[in-house]
Structures are given as C-alpha cells and as structure tokens.
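Hi all, posting the design record for the shared folder.

TITLE: backbone redesign
STEP: 1 of 1
STRUCTURE INPUT:
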C-alpha cells in the first residue's frame, strides 16, 4: 500500500510539473498558449494536494505545535495529551466529512462543467470527500494505537 501511494503521488506531481513546464515553454517561449491546459491541470493538482494530506495523516507526520509537551514530565501525560488531540481531530474531521458529503451531493446534483473544455468538475470535488474519509480513518487508527500504548505503559 505504501509503495502504491508513493507511486501515485510521484505520478501526480510529475504530471503537474510536466504540465507547468509545457505551459511555460508554449506560452513564454513559443508564444502559443495551450487552450485548456490550466483546466486539465486542476484535476491532478487537487488530487495531489488532497492525497498528500492523506499521506501525511497515514504517516502521522502532520505539522504540530505541541507547546503543552514542554510542561509534561511523564510518558503517560504525553500519551493522554496525544489521545486528547486525536479525539479532537476526529470530532473536527467528522464535521468536515459531513460538510464534504453535502458538497459532494451538491456537486453530483448540479454536475458543473469547466468553462473551456466542459470537463465535469465532480471528479475534482469528490477528492475532498475521499480525502476527509481517509484522513479520518487514519486518525482513528492512530488513536487506537495511542490508547494501546497508554494501556501498555500503565501495565508495566
């Protein structure tokens, strides 16, 4: 799974970089802009952004400002603080996932299209719901791991 995710993210970033390279060459050197290139690059760019956030959630490498850890002395206190943070993250992610579900239903109902190439924007919009669901799943997995670590440390 990890290999697939890294290949997918690498592929998406290569597509975006190649598209931007083509845009710079055609627009500024050849002075012939490619019609619709910006629109088509929105799809891999948005999916790259969302799946990058999912990957950070999967690896548990989100940027954190754990100021309270400075004042905590024991490993138990650190575990409790981490569990509180994970529970708050799940609560916020649940609300955002509910919002993303409403947005996805709206996007499906309206079925908007991009202005130039008439590509359905639903396939970009659904990335938000997919990303939120996956981030919430990984947050729950990390919460369970932290609870197990807390129980294990108290048993010793």
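Okay, here is what came back for every position:
SEQUENCE:
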């Amino acid at each position: 799974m990890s290999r697939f995710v890294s290949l997918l993210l690498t592929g998406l970033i290569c597509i975006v970089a190649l598209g931007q390279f083509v845009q710079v060459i055609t627009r500024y050197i050849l002075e012939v802009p490619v019609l619709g290139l910006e629109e088509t690059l929105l799809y891999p760019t948005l999916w790259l952004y969302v799946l990058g956030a999912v990957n950070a959630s999967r690896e548990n490498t989100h940027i954190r400002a754990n100021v309270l850890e400075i004042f905590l002395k024991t490993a138990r206190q650190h575990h409790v603080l981490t569990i509180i943070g994970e529970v708050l993250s799940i609560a916020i992610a649940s609300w955002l996932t509910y919002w993303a579900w409403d947005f996805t239903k709206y996007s499906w109902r309206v079925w908007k299209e991009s202005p130039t190439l008439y590509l359905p924007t639903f396939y970009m919009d659904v990335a938000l719901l997919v990303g939120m669901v996956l981030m919430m799943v990984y947050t729950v997995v990390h919460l369970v791991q932290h609870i197990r670590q807390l129980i294990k440390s108290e048993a010793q």
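COMMENT: Residues 2-155 form one domain.
Let me know if anyone wants the other runs.
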